[in-house]
Amino acid sequence: MPPSTLRFHHDGTMHFLEVHPEHLNIKVEAPPETTHGWVVTYLGGDEQQTPLHKEGPCWTGRLPRSNLHYRFRFLVQGKVWWYNQSGVSSTSPAFHTDFKHTEQAPPEWVHGRVFYQIFVDRFKNGNPALSVREGEYLYEGHPVKARRWEDSPTREHGAREFYGGDLEGIRQSVPYLKTLGVNALYLNPIFESPSSHKYDTQDYHRIDPHFGTNQDFARWMKDMHENDIRVVLDGVFNHTGDRHMWMNREQVYGFRGAHQGGDTRRHYTYHGPGPDDYLGWAGIKTLPKLDYQHPEVRSKMYGQRHSVVRYWLNPPYNVDGWRLDVSPMIGKNGTDEGNQEILSGIWQAARETRPDSFIFGEHVFDATRWLQGGVEDGSMNYHGFTHPTWGFLAGVEHRMQPAQVTAEDYAQRLTTSLSSLPHPHQLAQVNLLSSHDTVRFATLCPDPDLQKIGAALLLTFIGVPCIYYGDEIGLQGGEDPDCRKPMPWGSPAFQGDLHRWYRTLIQLRHQEQALQRGAFQVLHAQGDELVFERRLGPERIRVLLSRGEGFLSPLEGQWLDPVTSQLHRKQVRIPSKGVVILKSTCK
Fold first, then answer.
1. How much of the chain is helix, strand and coil, in % rounded to 5?
2. Of 587, 440, 134, 29, which Cα lies nearest the Cα of 454?
3. How far is CA 378 from each of CA 136, 327, 371, 375, rounded to the nearest angstrom?
4. What integer pLDDT is reported at residue 43 of this predicted model?
5. What is the full DSSP assignment across 493-517?
């Protein structure tokens, strides 16, 4: 009996894992030929096998409530089989792919949200009086540029060219956001900074005056929450800007900073006696790296009552969380030393200040170590979604080299990444097709049919979908700065097929709990064909797609297409370069 023919099922939803004050009730579905079952844990370094009892189609058991990992062991027709998040195996699987329970789960509100990422300067100019004026000041020795909205960004001027987007522009766009269906925002940095990207923070406690004032932001946050829109800010905590008062390289402030040999020199990592002998992020002198070895840095960034992390979570702002820029690089002595300890401190400070705050990190690569509870709730899921999806639909890998990725390869990449995470953290992974740091998905994948498949994957895969502004209309863009073009308001694309498809998918996401909270399982992956299911107890959403020729997929029972309202029995045809989403009508 090959493992592929054995059908076990367990997940971290309330239907299979009931959490009680002192214990966990565990259920798992197993083949009818199963004669014995155990749930296996390794508390205290020793294996403990707890017998399971058969109750209808499920086997049930009880474990003490604690942070633990567990797997199952079954006897089927006289042969032992193991089952954990990596699947079914005849040999004992690796610990890191076990099912996991953690008491430090992400906030519940995240599951029902569709995020929208906004690079503020390029989204909408709501108050022209705030806009940067041509030559208003110097940045890196050159006058800043005021650009027309229809102009494309240039490498020549880079971070010193401005378009005038601001917080008021976002507020004026709330009707558009609500019509699209998004109900959470991730904003690129909004604190005072001389650049257009604002990753060189000058003052963490002040909204950039070209975006508005602190008072404006407090009122803006109130408006967002009254419209049921959550807001997560970009926390650039690995480095400051060189104009920050602690460094004061440009002598903006009338006191001694690190550059003048002041006490805050210890806030940074110096490798020589000179004023410029400090470590900059990626060697960039405008981005001096903070040294969290110094207790005052930890205190001011997240420890004390008015620290940066706590300040914006508190009234009158009440932001809903932080996205941590280059989070795995934050550390001591100019390295990532103590990284998880520091990030855990940030997470704890946020939870103490606002118990339902959402903390996710920027991780380009595998973030498993940070996503076991108490460090980060989620990550920007480049590793487990973005890059695999680029390979499958666009034929490129993350370094922009050609990639030949079959559906089997794609499915394995998705499931391997998920198998190392507790279910609550799977649900909190922030999935994206592109961002301010990448080539636009529509440029990577110019085929409109494949773009629609990409949108379907984004809105139905396990985790939290995040749409980079303009992706919903197929906005084109190459590498930075071309991927940061102004939003083309008034474009015919807002009435196009892709935009309508995004709205349909987002509406479906909001109405189906299985898409928000359900487990993920691949049912079929071969060549160009992929079929997967999101399951929440009896609720099932099945996603069937082909990036190539169409195919017939067998069905058990009756299924409804919630987009077309068509019923399907026995089988369904998937069109060429198409996707079908079905909902089970059986309970």
1. 30, 30, 45
2. 440
3. 39, 11, 6, 9
4. 80
5. GGGSHHHHHHHHHHHHHHH-HHHHH
Q: What is the pLDDT of residue 57?
A: 86
Cα(169)–Cα(389) distance, integer angstroms = 32
- Examine the pLDDT at 16 and tell me if it is beyond 70: yes
Strands 567-574 and 551-560: antiparallel
Q: Which amino acids are annotated catalytic?
A: 325, 362
pLDDT in tens, 141-166: 999 999 999 999 999 999 999 999 99
Residues composing the chain: 587
Is residue 358 within 8 A of residue 107, CB to CB? The reply is: yes
Instruction: Kindly state the helix (H) or strand (E) to which residue 531 belongs, with its residue range.
Output: strand 529-536
Tens of pLDDT, residues 352-384: 999 999 999 999 999 999 999 999 999 999 999
**Strands of 297-357, DSSP E:** 321-324
Is 253 buried (19+), middle (13-18) or exposed (0-12) by CB count in 10 A? middle
Note the pLDDT tens digit of each residue in 528-541: 999 999 999 999 99
Cβ-contact 292, 299 below 8 angstroms: no
**Statement: residue 1 has pLDDT above 60:** no
Amino acid at 463: G
| DSSP designation for 94 | P
d(CA 584, CA 535): 10
What gap in Å lies between CA 435 and CA 382, rounded to an integer? 10
How many Cβ atoms from other residues are within 10 Å of residue 441's Cβ?
Answer: 29
Edge-to-edge strand order for the sheet containing 53-55? 17-19, 23-29, 58-64, 53-55
Q: Please report the DSSP string for 301-315 in residue order.
A: IIISTT-HHHHHHST
